[in-house]
Amino acid sequence: MSAVTHTVVLPGRPTLLEAALLALSRTAAGLAEKRMRRRARAVEAEPTRRAGRAASAAMSADAARYLLPR
């Protein structure tokens, strides 16, 4: 995934307000990208997680067979 970036050209040095807004914008973009990456990993891991839960449920349902004396 790649984020779309915009270059802002400011004449001279940015004012304190402009610098704060730019920093806030960079922070928000970074957080949004982290959130998107986390969601993408969760979507990719879902089939494996479901398979693991199904196997666990099957073993739990079959536990009596293993626990009863033979």
Which terms summarize this structure?
73% helix, 0% strand, 2 helices, mainly alpha, 70 residues
Quick overview:
With 70 residues, the protein is mainly alpha-helical. It has helices at 16-61, 63-67. The mean pLDDT is 85.
Structural commentary:
The chain is mainly alpha-helical. 73% of the residues lie in helices and 0% in strands. The protein has two helices and no strands. The protein is rod-shaped. The N and C termini lie far apart (56 Å).
Gap between N and C termini, in Å? 56 Å
- Mass-distribution shape: rod-shaped
Mean pLDDT: 85
Uncertain spans: none
Largest sheet: none
Q: Note the beta-strand portion.
A: under 5%
Number of helices: 2
Total strands: the figure is 0
Instruction: Please trace the helix and strand order, writing H or E for each element.
Output: HH
What portion of residues is helical? over 70%
